[in-house]
Amino acid sequence: MSDGGDSPAGLVTKAAAAGLAAIAVTDHDNDAGCAEAVAAGRQLDVEVIPGVEISCDIADIEDRGFHPSARPTMHLLGYFIPLSDNPLSAALAELQEARLWRNHVIVKRLNELGIPVTFEEVENEAGGPGAQIGRPHFAEVLVRHGAVADYQSAFDDYLAKGAKAYITRKLYRPGEATELMIEAGVVPVLAHPFTLQLGLDELGRFVDELVEAGLKGIEGYHGDLTELEQEPYRDIGKRKGLIVSGGSDYHGDMRPDRALPGGKCGVNVPQEALDELKSACAALAGAPG
Fold first, then answer.
1. Phi, psi of 254 (to 5 degrees)
2. Can you tell me the distance from the alpha carbon of 76 to that of 213, in angstroms, rounded to the nearest whole number?
3. How far is 259 from 113, CA to CA, in rounded Å?
4. Structural domains present in the chain
5. CB atoms within 10 A of CB 83
6. Rounded distance, CA 181 to CA 80, Å?
7. What digits encode the pLDDT tens for the residues 52-94?
8. pTM of the full structure
9. Which pLDDT score, from 0 to 100, does residue 289 have?
10. What pLDDT was estimated at residue 60?
11. Number of CB atoms found within 10 A of residue 283's CB
């Protein structure tokens, strides 16, 4: 429902064909596809964990040795979102309103740059009225207009941070997003820690801050790197008593370099990661308040 090339049900169908026993659906800043995915999983005998991937702003990243213009966005995964009303889903709905405003501004900016893009065609690229529009959908439209040669050029020239049509949007701070998840009984996990571009010592200190806010896990089996390359991140997780989880980070035809299962590097997530995530969710459900 955000930046994947498959529908939620289509994703689960592919997971079943790939022989996966369980899959988590974690759209960016959006849990609207979870119910559809869970229903498809029941039909296809695939366990579907409803989740989300929230983009967070590390506002003090310059204090960690980066220039503000180069600071990365942190992604926080949340597993086992309730399909009923909950505070996290309500917060995600607010993010969608902010994203909608940003998308209209991007269209205006592209028009000012001489590219006759309309909001309606970007919306149709995303799946029709009411669909969540992300930068990948803008990229596809820019390619179709001949404004750029390919998908990656669309990001490099127009959509990436600092590019000609990049517009900032509302982002939660990491601690805020973590606390929202905990309040809703959702298990928070730091996604692909290697993208933060922090040294291991500094990453360890940053993880400590997130643990204070309620962080329960860290990805140590991401499909973009080999298991050996991610061993330092698993070590951080083990030292700090965190669940070490992972996934392919599959996006369908939006990111054809990532396979299902295994991602780029054929990394497999051990069963114990799922078992520990379930235990953490049960513990949150039994927590006071």
1. -70, -30
2. 12
3. 36
4. 8-96+170-285 (3.20.20.140), 97-159 (1.10.150.650)
5. 12
6. 10
7. 999 998 865 445 554 444 556 799 999 999 999 999 999 998 8
8. 0.84
9. 44
10. 56
11. 12
pLDDT tens digits for 145-164?
Answer: 999 999 999 999 999 988 99
| Amino acid symbol at 201 | D
205 CB-near residues (< 8 Å, 6+ apart): none
Half-sphere exposure (CA, 13 Å, Cβ side) for 152? 3
Contacts of residue 199, defined as CB under 8 A and 6 or more positions apart, other chains included, come to none
For residues 203 and 194, give the distance between their C-alpha atoms in angstroms, rounded to a whole number.
9
Query: What is the pLDDT at residue 127?
Result: 82
Q: What is the DSSP string of 190-214?
A: E--GGGG---HHHHHHHHHHHHHHT
Pull the structure tokens for residue 221. Answer: 């089996």
Residue 96, pLDDT above cutoff 70:
yes
Give the three-state DSSP class for 221. strand
Six token digits for residue 282: 């049960």
Q: Which residues of 202-228 are buried (b: 16+ CB within 10 A; e: fewer)?
A: ebeebbeebbebbbbbbbbbbbbbeee
Structure tokens at 128: 């029709």
